[in-house]
Design goal:
9% strand, Arc Repressor Mutant, subunit A, mainly alpha, three-stranded antiparallel sheet, 10 strands
Length: 342
């Protein structure tokens, strides 16, 4: 990428201003320091109103605009960068990319001056972003709405490598009226959205999903189980959560939250992964009900082993409970009529 000395360019641009105009612009945009200053703060230093400071700033910007032609290469560079992002980018990400951390205020100032660049303030749906599209909101709404529906139907987070942006846009372009935004804009638009977010592992999903924004120990435990896709001991869950998670606190949350099922001594699994809640007796009753036919001891042992990590003797003791189970003439087990599980 072409390197520009943004600090020198900005200094040159405001060099021809009056001392007060140069000071106001420099302080308002933070060109000589990291902190941008308010109209009121500058006005207090000069014993003038914030409105007068605004007028000085506006007059100074008009004068700067008259000399922009000599700096067209830098603005062309910024336009090319926008094109590579799909003509839209979340503000903090954009400034970090273009300003490389040290020149963010200078890049912000140049974007403010450049005619193709438009800044849209934060709303309840979107973070503050920049674009070269004059009316982007309708198209953005359609993109976000279409992907929101896609995620709601899928019900699990997804990486952008797993979903082809070209395929997604191809299916939705005429229906959703995406207009000038294309596949290259896909990531940038999602980045701007508040309702669709990316977690630390690079998976995109709905903001309220625990995999995307885990809240508290129980959600972080849920995410750990989703990643591992197998039963885990509560101490292992605490280790996976990290951050010095208290083992007993993790265990207490696993006990209280009905998303988790106790499947062995200290072992838990996700209910949504097909694990039945309840004790071994309840599991056996559920297996027999689902089978809709009597089962042999071995068949029951096999099915219980998919649900619980217990000794064979534990299953046999439960099968000997005459109030719940009986054998038919063929020696197969049935549950006693009227008995119920959790």
């Amino acid at each position: 990428m072409t390197k520009f000395n943004y600090q020198k360019i900005c200094s040159d641009l405001i060099e021809g201003l009056s001392p007060k105009g140069r000071e106001v612009v420099s302080r308002r945009f933070g060109l000589d320091q990291n902190q941008k200053e308010t109209l009121e703060a500058i006005g207090q230093d000069h014993s003038i109103t914030r409105e007068r400071v605004r007028q000085i700033q506006e007059d100074a910007i008009l004068k700067v605009n008259k000399v922009l032609d000599r700096y067209q290469p830098v603005f062309k560079h910024l336009e090319n960068a926008f094109r590579s992002y799909g003509n839209i980018k979340k503000e903090d990400v954009l400034l970090n990319l273009l300003g490389e951390g040290n020149n963010q205020n200078q890049v912000f100032f140049l974007l403010t001056l450049g005619k193709p660049f438009l800044r849209f303030f934060e709303t309840d749906k979107y973070h503050t972003f920049w674009t070269t599209e004059p009316k982007p909101t309708a198209a953005m709404n359609n993109v976000v709405s279409a992907f929101h529906k896609f995620l709601s139907k899928r019900k699990t987070p997804i990486t952008l490598q797993e979903v082809s942006a070209n395929e997604f846009f191809g299916k939705n372009k005429s229906k959703e009226k995406i207009h000038s935004f294309g596949p290259q804009s896909f990531h940038s638009i999602l980045e701007v959205s508040k309702n669709i977010q990316k977690n630390q592992d690079g998976f995109w999903g709905l903001r309220e999903w625990p995999e995307i924004n885990p809240r508290g120990i129980k959600d972080r435990a849920y995410v750990a189980f989703k990643k591992e896709q197998k039963p885990l001991h509560f101490s292992e869950v605490a280790r996976l959560i990290g951050g010095n998670a208290n083992v007993q606190s993790v265990h207490n949350e696993l006990i209280r939250d009905n998303r988790f099922v106790l499947v062995g001594r200290g072992l838990y699994a996700l209910k949504e992964m097909g694990y039945r809640p309840g004790v071994v007796r309840d599991v056996i009753i559920g297996i027999l009900k689902d089978s809709k036919k009597p089962l042999t001891q071995e068949e029951i042992l096999s099915e219980v082993s998919k649900q619980r990590v217990v000794q064979k003797s534990t299953v046999l003791i439960n099968l000997n409970n005459k109030q719940c189970f009986s054998k038919n003439p063929e020696g197969k087990y049935v549950f006693v009529k009227g008995v119920s599980s959790i």
